[in-house]
Amino acid sequence: MKKALSVCSVVLRIVLCVLVGVLLVYNVYMLIAKLAFKQQMPTFFGFASAAVVSGSMEPTINTGDFIITLKRDDYEVGEVVMFLEGGVYTTHRIVEETEDGFRTMGDNNEGSLDPWTAREENIVGEVVLVLRGFGKAAAFFQTPAGMMCIVAAAALLWVLAELPSFIKKKKEKGNEAN
């Protein structure tokens, strides 16, 4: 039993270190890309993410959801993509392909096509994952305060993982004194 607890404690610490390390590297990379290289929507191995702030894609994607997109070489009618148009990132469904690009429309926009044509070079990527209601939390964790919360939570979990070992040593010292 003692060995199992020890192994669990070591595994938990390793998982915590890897998870916190990956999150911190990702967040630092995103901050540097935004601040130093002036990328409005940085990608990480072709992936980008965003919190959804409008209901134009409801019920498929709701306000407050968090989306992950993946850059691809080509896109097809029916796919939901995020793209830059007029300085604003929009997530809509491709409804038609033309010589100039793609015609898009929000699922909740009652049949009215967007007034623009999304050119392929302005597409950030296809939406590959929607995390329901996670948009505000994800946006917070990408801030410096959010990163500090991640580090604090990891430190707390580290201490909790060490607690059984600490209690065991304390008991052993108490038994030796008697």
Quickly list its features.
178 residues, alpha+beta, 7-stranded antiparallel β-sheet, 7 strands, serine-type endopeptidase activity
- List the quaternary state of the chains: single chain
Task: Let me know the average pLDDT.
Answer: 88
Report the C-alpha radius of gyration, rounded. Answer: 23 Å
Helices and strands, in order, run as: HEEEEEEEHH
Can you count the beta strands? 7
What distance lies between the first and last C-alpha atoms, to the nearest angstrom?
25 Å
Verbal overview:
The chain is an alpha+beta fold and about 180 residues long. The protein has three helices and seven strands, in the order H-E-E-E-E-E-E-E-H-H. It has helices at about 1-35, 135-140, 145-175; strands at about 45-50, 65-70, 80-85, 90-95, 100-105, 115-120, 125-130. It has a seven-stranded antiparallel β-sheet, covered by helices on one side. Strand 3 (about 80-85) and strand 4 form a beta hairpin. Helix 1 (about 1-35) packs antiparallel against helix 3. It is elongated. The two termini are about 25 Å apart. The model has no long low-confidence stretch (mean pLDDT about 90). Keywords: Hydrolase, Membrane, Protease, Transmembrane, Transmembrane helix. Its EC number is 3.4.21.89. InterPro entries: LexA/Signal_pep-like_sf (IPR036286), Peptidase_S24_S26A/B/C (IPR015927), Peptidase_S26 (IPR019533), Peptidase_S26B (IPR001733).
